[in-house]
Amino acid sequence: MKKKKVVRFDFWLNPAFNAHMDALEDIEHVVCSHDDQDQENLAAFQDAHVYHICAARDEVPAQWWVTEELLKQAPSLLCASSSGAGYDPIDVEACTRHGVLVVNQSGCNADSVAEHALGLLLSVKHRIAESDRVMRAAAYTTREDLMGNEIRGLTVGLLGLGNIGRRVAHLAKAFGMTVLACDPYLTAEEISRRGATSVSLDELLARSDVFSVHCPRTPETLNLLDATRFGAMKPGAVFISTARGGIHDETALYEALRDKQLSGAGLDVWTVEPPARDNPLLSLPNVTATYHTAGVTHEARRNAAVMAAQQIEAVLRGDSAPRVVNPEVLPLFRERYNQLFG
Fold first, then answer.
1. pLDDT, tens only, 65-89
2. What is the pTM for the complete model shown?
3. Which residues are catalytic?
4. Please, are residues 248 and 239 in contact by the beta-carbon 8 Å criterion?
5. Which residue segments constitute the domains of the chain, with CATH numbers given?
């Protein structure tokens, strides 16, 4: 019997992924290299059943994103599996048209990202990163020049209350913060069960001392936070994003910080990653910047590897996948699966 085939490129994965996949005798695990010729790599895709792709869009050359063009060259592909919670390099609508299941590893890094979001907030309000830069530059004057603020008693507004947002809500409450949330996919009752008070986006903007983004990047959220919405935020608010670059307009954010509409920002995600050294946001002392590393912890990466390997095995066994992005494709996916494997 012909083996089922999983293809991926040689991006960094926790060894747990290879250990799981290589132990499956009826599944072939092929690792391609971006250094090889495209035609050589395409040959591996022509009879592949699963493509496990790096979730970081700027770490995947555009020709290896899951697009209409690539799908046409992979006629046996049944599943596009993202290595993380996000799936930016995957055209979900194209996959649905082709009967290809899209799965992710949502929840794999929720604790890590939530902790990082709170870390960014503490860094901005207590001026931790700013103080570190002053010390290393030997630019110290007085401690009072680096005086920060407590976060206890502040109101944090969460845009999105999924796996990560609900953990941020829990941590924020431990710090004595009031938690508001806006999530159009959840009822007010469910938002309450997850530890927040449901409000509209306009109210979230107006009432939040801290505005933290935890929604996916989609056509609906692209450039959602523009100059108008930054202008509608509570004066002196802090902006935090550990979600995806492109949800907020970086130029508009810079102007809101420059003009003191906002008092600071903690940014882990960028429109282009890594950001250019001359990105204006990096010139501001009240911005704490990180390299999209919120979810890059040993624990989160192992979780992602194990979850992905187990889910891929389930898909190829014909079992239910626990984290499906496009459930509407399931009837066509099952039809194609049965045509291939009976």
1. 999 999 999 999 999 999 999 899 9
2. 0.89
3. 244, 273, 292
4. yes
5. 4-107+298-341 (3.40.50.720), 110-289 (3.40.50.720)
